[in-house]
UniProtKB/TrEMBL annotation:
Molecular function, one GO term: malonyl-CoA methyltransferase activity
HAMAP family: BioC
Class of the enzyme per the UniProt entry, highest EC level: transferase
Family, similarity comment: Belongs to the methyltransferase superfamily.
UniProt organism field: Aeromonas cavernicola
Protein name in the entry: Malonyl-[acyl-carrier protein] O-methyltransferase
GO biological process: biotin biosynthetic process; methylation
Lineage, top ranks: Bacteria, Pseudomonadati, Pseudomonadota, Gammaproteobacteria, Aeromonadales
Pfam families hit by this protein: Methyltransf_11
Length: 271
């Protein structure tokens, strides 16, 4: 793992995302947009086949995409690290089997799934190469893995604004595209199909962006812990300075933009 990253506390990670589960979807328009595009990357299910098709939604969260994924297979599994997320996914009903587990230690036998869908989950892995090895292990020969993940240029405006305030990034750390390619190579995947895109999400005011990050439980999960600051008047003053610093990114149309750098990827396990 890159030396800039701290070890990920998986218990804390599960607790934070689980605590956000009930209101996650209300703050997840970016995640929903990316997942929808990733779905369009996936090939449609064959019109007819004599064999049952099995799929895995890795990092299924609240189960937002499970209904659409269920139309592409006969047997569907949704896996997430956070029990709170799975509890929310269960409320959607449907026929997907929900499993609590870690992407770096998947609780499935070799060659189990025909395809894997994983949107904006793999960036939280401490050992991305291990996660990709696990995905390649559980997919069948000839099976496909479609994923999206965040790259290190994500939310550069947020980082720049906070650094003007107190010199700290207040931002999660993500892999660069070069590091992602290296992780895939270490996992044994030498020819991935990758496409990196800038994804701009508009906001009227900067605090809306902060509320979305907190609302999905993604506020500083894997970044070095920032220096503690006192709350109260001092905390409110810092927030006001941040809001003022973010104003430099207001667009001609009056919107403030938060830019994510997203990589869409497709892998195929050799037959």
């Amino acid at each position: 793992m890159d030396e800039r990253f701290q070890s990920v506390d998986k218990t804390l990670l599960a607790r934070r995302f689980g605590a956000a589960a009930r209101h996650y979807d209300a703050h997840a328009r970016f995640q929903q947009e990316v997942g929808q595009v990733l779905l369009e990357w996936m090939p449609s299910r064959p019109v007819s086949t004599d064999l049952a098709v099995s799929g895995l939604d890795l990092g299924c969260g609240t189960g937002f995409f499970l209904p659409q994924l269920a139309n592409r297979c006969d047997e569907l599994v949704g896996l997430d690290l956070a029990p709170g997320m799975l509890a929310q996914a269960a409320l959607r009903g449907g026929r997907a089997q929900l499993v609590c587990g870690d992407a770096e230690r998947l609780p499935f036998a070799d060659n189990t799934f025909d395809w894997v869908f994983s949107s904006l989950t793999l960036q939280w892995c401490e050992r991305p190469a291990q996660a990709f090895r696990e995905l390649l292990r559980v997919v069948k020969p000839g099976g496909q893995i479609h994923f999206s993940t965040l790259l290190d240029e994500s939310l550069w405006q947020l980082r720049a604004a906070w650094q003007q305030v107190d010199g700290e990034a207040h931002l999660n750390r993500f892999l660069s595209l070069t590091q992602l390619v290296q992780a895939l190579a270490e996992a044994g995947e030498a020819a991935p199909v990758l496409a990196a895109h800038d994804w701009e999400i508009p906001y009227h005011e900067a605090p809306q962006l902060l509320r979305d990050l907190k609302g999905i439980g993604a506020n500083q999960v894997n970044a070095p812990r920032a220096t503690e600051h006192r709350v109260g008047l001092q905390g409110r003053a810092r927030l006001q300075r941040f809001i003022q610093a973010y104003e430099q990114f207001r667009q001609p149309d009056g919107q403030l933009v938060a830019t994510y750098r997203v990589c869409l990827g497709a892998l195929c396990k050799p037959c």
